[in-house]
Amino acid sequence: MQAQVLNGSISLFTQTQVNNFNYTEVTGYVLINGGPLFNGGDPITDLSPLASLEKVGEFFQIAFVDDTEIILPNLVSVEENGGIFGNTFNITQNPEATILSLPSFTTAYGDIYIQMAKLETIDLPALTAVNATRFTILSNPELTTLNVPNIQTLASWLRIINNDKLTEISSFNNLTNILGSLEIVGNDQLSSITGLSALMTIGGTLRVGQNPQLADCCLFQPLLETPGAVGGTIISANANGCQSISQIFEYCSPCPWETVDIGNPGAGNAYDLGDCETGFTINAGAANNSPGSDNIASITQELCGDFQITTQVASITPNGYAGLMARESGAAGSKMIGVYSNHSSVVRMESRSVTNGPKAMNFFQKPAPYWLKLVRQGNWFYTYYSFNGVNFSFVTAQYLSMNAWKSVWPPSAISRAQQLRLCSAM
User: Does the pTM of the predicted model rise above 0.70?
Assistant: First the structure.
């Protein structure tokens, strides 16, 4: 029998009615409800006879169907013809369904609502637009796979809520604009949302909360930094790292340190910044023993005005030194002052008061200088040492006038809190 267009609406309550379905298009609504109050002892267990359906003009609902797979291979769109039920595409309360697959579905002009107790996979590979109020994926406790790779713009809200086994949102790779709100709430195992990294604007509220495994929300930082990119923001009750807007900025800001070879690197310098927080490793390939030259491996950050920086030299190879340095620039021969330790009872001090002039070197007998501190106040620099990082003792003070007064170039390094552990240096 040749499939045809139904000018009107249709309700299907039994498997027999589903078997007799023979349309490519329904201009009105399609209501499929296999609930016991409607099916007359003929429950709906197989939706494959709907394979011919390509277009629905109004409301489309599939509910209380016992088929394990809801697959509509040729459905392209739910159109914008209004009607008594509006334009919602509602797939809910299908107790046995584990797969929802609409491989040809490109456009929804109404809300999409998906809620099923055993649903494991949502596959909407061709969907490019939802022109409605809400796209809701709600309370699917078994959902593990969400595939929506080609959608670019949502004229609706995107709501991903209470999906207990969903661990990642990885497939909205082309989604750049949400005209409504984005809600990611109450997903117990969700730990990755990298699939939303293309987002440029959210017209409504960005709400991310009650996702106890979600620690990385860094993809939202560019949105939060751009005026007008987000209508409002609520971030709370996620894992540490994504518990507030301020925490996103704290955890996601780019590493403020960069590696700089000063002077001759000799056999070559190597650096490991790790996580940029807990400690750095430096391997230097040149000696820095001559008063007339700088040959230094450094991890640097620009600081302006007065400062205080502290480092722990966790380990050092024999005959090596590591510590803190302030320089006028990264050029060899610039004005500088440095304080270094080699885990002996010696604190080494260096300073250069004239650009390209010789360095003054001094050695101070100080027990267990495992921690070093460098403080700048105006043109004065003060150096300290400590064996435990808590109780510091004074080493010396140096008056040094620099033109810029704005760069700190420590051959070890410091964290954003101005304190770090130098894991090792060679």
Answer: no
